[in-house]
Amino acid sequence: MAQPEPPVFTGLFSVNGATRLYGTIGDPIRQLRMTGIMPQVFAAVGANAVWLPFEGGAPLLQLMLDGLRGKLRNLAGFTVTIPHKTAILPLLDRVSPRAQAAGSVNMVKRDGAQLVGDIGDGLGFVRGLEAAGHRVHGASVWLVGLGGVGGAIAAALCEAGVGRLLVTELDDARADAAVARLSKFYPNVPVANVDMPPKGIHYAINATPLGLRPNDPLPFDPMMLAPEVLVAEVIMSPAETPLLQRARTHGRRIHHGRHTLDHQVPIYLDWFGIDAKGIDIVRLVRSIP
Amino acid sequence: MAQPEPPVFTGLFSVNGATRLYGTIGDPIRQLRMTGIMPQVFAAVGANAVWLPFEGGAPLLQLMLDGLRGKLRNLAGFTVTIPHKTAILPLLDRVSPRAQAAGSVNMVKRDGAQLVGDIGDGLGFVRGLEAAGHRVHGASVWLVGLGGVGGAIAAALCEAGVGRLLVTELDDARADAAVARLSKFYPNVPVANVDMPPKGIHYAINATPLGLRPNDPLPFDPMMLAPEVLVAEVIMSPAETPLLQRARTHGRRIHHGRHTLDHQVPIYLDWFGIDAKGIDIVRLVRSIP
């Protein structure tokens, strides 16, 4: 059955006294992209809601949680970005196994009397990969970087049933902690630290920040991988990092960071209990520059 | 010099990561009108800001003050409506004499390390009266109702130098407290409680809620006043209350509640330090339905 066309949207919206408040907490928050995306999604699904930047350091966490617990009654929930994703986890009443395995939370809402958290970053990545035709279940994956995003992707990959997860992280303590968490929550998935680009993998994923700045070194050289390995990126800006450029110009298959964003928004709607009304949210988000 | 024309505005706006958050705290807050007005004002003066409803009971006050003190760094300030205008006063570091005399605060911002409050309700009323050609300095005024709005108007009238202020308030304790506050802060203005429509006044002001509902009794009968007395209203909706209707249809001069709203917005901009860029804000607000 064909899905209904999303309505034409101008990027502008209105607020009234009954508007529900959503947003993202972070420090800094000026880089926030969701304020350009969520109004269009809310308008498409007919939700009277606004997406806001909430900027502040560590004391903002408890403030927002107090607000969500009922002090600010029209605060409906929020997402979490750098540097709060790990610090907010122990402040919540209930956290999904996926978020515990990732060691971070990026979605917070109230469920009855409880404040609950989950991580959608890695799930968005996995859904983007699968939507592009790349099967995750049973695959052998090399993941480079086990920071916030890397840890979330690792957990989502394990939950999606990868056959084998190889990880590379320069910070040994961080790597050991991440592998221990993954092994605890996903004991059936073999996870191993590796130093070099490994053999026999299907996907190589950059989850480090290398590529955000023009003069960053490559996180790894895609030419050291077997030709059939898909090279995937988490960085969205630039749209095509030097890693992806090098892989593509040498005829390798690549997967852009933007897919994660496109697939994250339906995860947000699910999490916050906002009915998508049958609209193809991924297509809508993809149409936003 | 002619003031620049305000730009055409659609009532819609956008938010990004650098948008500053303003709003109104109240309980309930669904009736809030400023969300329909302030975006147009912000757009006209080129401020990257949004006006939000913040709904909650007593615990919301400290939450918002903590946020304003720095926990929520992009919270730029807020206004206060029912039922918080009196309760928030003692929670602030510094409150204007006008607000102390009124016993209520409706504007809160941060000034350096201090949280400061003022009351703009009465000032908006006085400015609206003067802009309509009704001189306040030296006038004899009868004010009916000394609740939140009435107390604010009383303080603003005293500050503007009325010659005499006569007040009528059914709640004796409230009346005594209000008169005591006014006498303390404005010792040069004679203030007296009166029961009946007094003689020798220039303006009679309804500051009670009577007239909000269709079947409310009149707060007073304008026909018992001398024919030259101006009958003024604080109620904005309905635009013309039964009090004003009765006065107008009998040839009396009237002053609508809407004037206060129109004149309150420039007071907000001043308070929050937002440059109006020479735009006639009153005219802009008046053009909004």
If you had to describe this structure to a student in words, what would you say it looks like?
The structure is a homodimer of 289-residue chains. Chain A is an alpha/beta fold and 289 residues long. The first copy, chain A, folds into 2 domains: 20-95 and 273-286, Rossmann fold (3-Layer(aba) Sandwich), CATH 3.40.50; 122-256, NAD(P)-binding Rossmann-like Domain (Rossmann fold). The first copy, chain A, has 9 helices and 12 strands. In chain A, strand 7, helix 5 (148-159) and strand 8 form a beta-alpha-beta unit. In chain A, helix 4 crosses helix 8. The mean pLDDT of chain A is 93. Chains A and B meet through helix 1, strand 2 and helix 2 of A and helix 1, strand 2 and helix 2 of B.
